[in-house]
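Comment thread on ticket #2218

A.B. wrote:
> Attaching the input chain for the structure job we discussed in standup.
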Amino acid sequence: MRSSKRALSTILTAVAICVPAVGFAQAKLSNNAVKIGVLTDLSGGFSDLTGSGSVLAARMAIDDFGGKVLGSPIELTSADTMNKADVASNAARKWYDVEGVDYIVDMPASSVALAVAKIAQSKSKLAAMVGAATTRLTNEDCSPTVFHWAYDTYALATGTARAVVKQGGDSWYFLTADYAGGHALEKDAADVVRAEGGKVIGTSRHPFPASDFSSFLVTASGSGAKVIGLANAGTDTINSIKQAAEFGITQKQTLAATLLFISDVHSLGLARSQGMYLTTGFYWDLDDETRAFSKRFFAKQKKMPTMAQAGVYSAVLHYLKAVKESGTDDPVLVAKKMKEMPVKDFFARNGKLREDGRMVHDMYLAQVKKPAESKYPWDYYWIRQVIPGDQAFLPLAKSACSLVKK
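C.D. wrote:
> Ran it. Output below, let me know if you need it in another format.
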């Protein structure tokens, strides 16, 4: 009888110890779930390179992780920025304050990303900018809980502008989208052109978005520059290249797109885009790992993923790994863990998050194939050079980020 009472007492004691421990573990996740929001362009000029493909990439990352973290479900929501900073800001505030979203990703258009970054910083919430390009996100506007994932204007200019100048394109005229991302693309590319011994003859700035580039192209063509630098993205880039070909400009001058996606090349066709150099953080046909992901993505999206969409997958997966390792979804603690852990996936083999929030990874200098060189669908690029991450992105020694110790 005594032994039975002693055994019962031991069991009750164990239960008493375990119950608060379980309650403590559950309290580590706000709302008993982890909620991720994909804030993207679902209807505008960047929808082909981000949009529904970014939402799909985030879902694939969640599914590949197992659908749960710390025993709780991982929820996904999405919204259209309409490429407007005020629309994106309102969505971000609602997500953070009302709907309990823990982590917002993507945000194409630099103006959108900068606006949401300020909100995330003010609320100490997590965000990963993937589809935006401006270096301000990890430079003068850096934040402890905001990351910049796939690429930026400095990395794009380092590869493309330098390669074109070395090929003899030493005089440039820029066609620039008149918004933060376009200005940054122009500045960083122009800096590289000058540093390599070239010169910038002039600039025309066009509204965003635009459909008629005829007057801008005529001015650029008349400048006498060897290279017309396209400091724009999405449908603006596509329309610029199409109209330049229609006017016969490409027969006399070289076009250099500072931000070109595989979705743009697909839309243009190889006949129009052949020979163009571009810098990218991802190519679906790079190796077995990129092909495996891309074929799964293609089965659902019917298009190969862009570097922005692949970057969304990487940013979501790394976040979930950090939540698991941290044992919490507390933004400050998860941000710290994300910076401590290496970024290892098909997108970034040896990636790392610096103190300024920049995810550093290898970039690739690519050249668009001629139609006769393409052997199968979406076989569009020659990879001409691997640019190591520590060379591709702005060195910390040149950073204006307040988080960087000097």
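A.B. wrote:
> Thanks. Noting for the ticket: The first helix runs from residue 2 to 26.
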